[in-house]
Amino acid sequence: MKITARLPLYVRGTPVRNNGTRDILVSTDFDWDIPEISRSETETAFESFNAFTPVVDEDDPLKRARAYEMADSYVLALKHDGNLYRRVSRADEKLKFDRAFPGGYDNSSGDSVGSGISLPTYSFGGDEERRERPFSLPVFRQLRWQMVCNSVRDTTILHQETWPQSFPALRDAPDLDRGLYVRRNSVTFEEVLPKIVTYDHDQLEACRRTYRGHMESFLIVDGELWMKTRPPVYKVKRRYESMEKTSVSVSVEFAPDWQDTRLPDAYFSLASRDDAFEYAQRVCMALAEGKTHGNRPAERGDVIDATSNHLVHDADILAYACEAEELRRVSSGLAVEARRFLVRNPAWKEKFSTDAVDGVFSAFAAVQATNYVLGEYGDPSDWLESNARIWRKTRRGNSTYDFGSVEIGDLLIERALGYEENKPIAVNAVQVSGNAPGRK
Predict the structure, then answer these.
(1) How many CB atoms lie within 10 A of CB 298?
(2) Which of 244, 224, 229 is CA-nearest to residue 83?
(3) In whole angstroms, what is the distance from residue 360 CA to residue 380 CA?
(4) Cα–Cα distance between 85 and 146 in angstroms, integer?
(5) Is the four-CA dihedral 304, 308, 313, 316 of positive or negative sign?
(6) Which residues fall within 8 angstroms of residue 29, CB to CB, at 6 or more apart?
């Protein structure tokens, strides 16, 4: 199936009438041919007995989709040519690749979607849902993550300083007002190129390489669109009930194909159910220890079992490297936040040894080399311990990454240090050398 996909493009460059280099974030079109196969050429890898359907609740003004238990199982993952796929459209849904940027907001991240919204496992929302969660979302998440990690500015206002800042008015397009990035769907790189004096050509080529990796992940099976995926896992997530109580849920979801910067939320292999619930209990304890209500300690929250009944047909699903991913996330967070502080406060570099400061920038270079769309991962964990000391002494930054409370942050570092001592040789690791230059 030949398609033209509109995808987000991020390069550093100097537009006209600008005194310095800017983050340029626009759209571009990319032609691709998606392979089409029959269901008989695939194998069932994972089935679930839970699904989501748009049950309209008249008492719920948002009419949110509700979970319900099904009598029969539903195939959520297929195996083809050694790869795992999840369904991302219905057979009767018109496939549209015309959106580079998502709509809507993700208030928990303080910015826009990118860390909190993922493509649906299968869509009941049709075209309306596609406007909020386009097929380009993995590329957007990767590029936005790179942008906010690179920046030393406040990430909550980063979108306001990204070029271009003004967009043409379009009629009959009310969705253009939903979200911080969605208006960039109407501006292409080719259209604004005459207004750009210089730009990073290597970064542009890196974007195009990411496009190819992204589009190679799609497959049409009997008219339905499927996408390469990480395996289903147990997700442990904080759920705020009130100022006095924070509970933690354990559910079954697909492991994210981006770096979740909410570090207290963790992912465990389906072979590690006990570990997932044990971690959930520890998070509940740490949350209670770190909160007070007036002069009273906070009430300890509950561990909510939101897991679904499921059938695993492919043993590879159980081999998800949850420890390696948690180590990568925590190490990346420490590198990004420590580097951000030192660039903004260069006098603090004198408080640490040269090796420790160099370690921050070497770890940050490993973060920059990581691309989830392409499955390429730098390894910032070699500097985990020294970066943790710097991060703690430099006021425990929570900007790009959310470490949670002091107690949660210490728990995360304790677990990561244990994983670092026993880490295996990394697969798909990207070798980096030298120091990453501090960006101002």
Answers:
(1) 17
(2) 229
(3) 9
(4) 25
(5) negative
(6) 4, 5, 6, 7, 188
- Shared domain for 291 and 339, answered yes or no, is no
In which domain, by residue range, is 99 found?
Answer: 2-37+88-227
Q: Provide mean pLDDT across the span 385-391.
A: 97
**The one-letter amino acid at 384:** L
Name the token pair of 177: 């007002």
Q: Would you call 97 exposed, middle or buried from its count of C-beta atoms within 10 A (0-12, 13-18, 19+)?
A: buried
Instruction: Find out whether 250 and 304 touch, Cβ atoms under 8 Å.
Output: yes
Tell me, yes or no, whether 13 and 94 share the same domain.
yes
**Residues 198 and 279 grouped into a single domain:** no
User: Shortest CA distance to 86 belongs to which of 112, 55, 59, 51?
Assistant: 51
251 in the same domain as 222: no
Three-class secondary structure of residue 254 per DSSP: strand
Q: Which residues of 371-382 are buried (b: 16+ CB within 10 A; e: fewer)?
A: bbbbeebbbbbe
**Residues 207 and 347 reside in one and the same domain:** no
Kindly state whether residue 327 falls inside one of the protein's structural domains: yes
Domain presence at residue 360: yes
Tokens of 308: 């679904």
Sheet with 2-15, side-by-side order of all strands: 22-33, 2-15, 196-199
Single-letter amino acid, residue 37: I
Question: Is the alpha carbon torsion for 146, 147, 153, 158 positive or negative?
Answer: negative
Question: Which of 286, 301, 319 is the last residue before a domain boundary?
Answer: 319
339/366 same-domain check = yes
Domain boundary among the residues 170, 205, 227 is at: 227
Mean pLDDT across the stretch 409-431? 78
pLDDT digits (tens, 9 = 90+) for 233-263: 999 998 765 556 678 888 888 999 999 999 9
Task: Please tell me the pTM assigned to this model.
Answer: 0.86
Main-chain dihedrals φ then ψ at residue 282, nearest 5 degrees: -65, -35
Distance CA 30, CA 26 (A): 13
pLDDT in tens, 106-116: 433 334 333 34
Domain count, the chain: 3
CA–CA distance from 366 to each of 356, 383, 435 (Å)?
15, 10, 10
164-168, 239-243, 398-402: which range is least confident on average?
A: 239-243
d(CA 184, CA 207) in angstroms, rounded, equals 16
Sorted by sequence, the CB contacts under 8 Å of residue 46 that are 6+ apart come out as: 75, 76, 77, 231, 232, 310, 311, 312, 313, 314, 317
Extract the tokens encoding 327.
């180590």
Domain shared by 293 and 329, yes or no: no
Residues 177 and 273 in one domain: no
